[in-house]
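A further point concerns the way the authors explain their paired sequence and structure data. Showing the layout once, in full, would remove most of the difficulty. For illustration, here is how one protein appears when written out as sequence plus structure tokens:
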Amino acid sequence: MTSKYAEYNGNTKFAFASGDVLFKEPKTTLQTDTLYFDRIKQQAFYRTGGTVIDTASVLTSRIGRYFAETKKYQFLSNVEIKLP
């Protein structure tokens, strides 16, 4: 993951990143302005819009969540998918 700003609280095991956030997995890339990560739940989420790009599509949503253990996404609001 890369971003312009990031902070992590070791007591709560909660991270926050903002400013051109890029979260890369082997098969997908998530682009958003703000990303939160809960290490206890192993979940990352955004609430201000994000774009997930893979080899077959580009998906945008206002709210989304990434489950690190299963490597799956959940999209919750204003979801739009574009296929080539």
Observations:
- The radius of gyration is 12 Å.
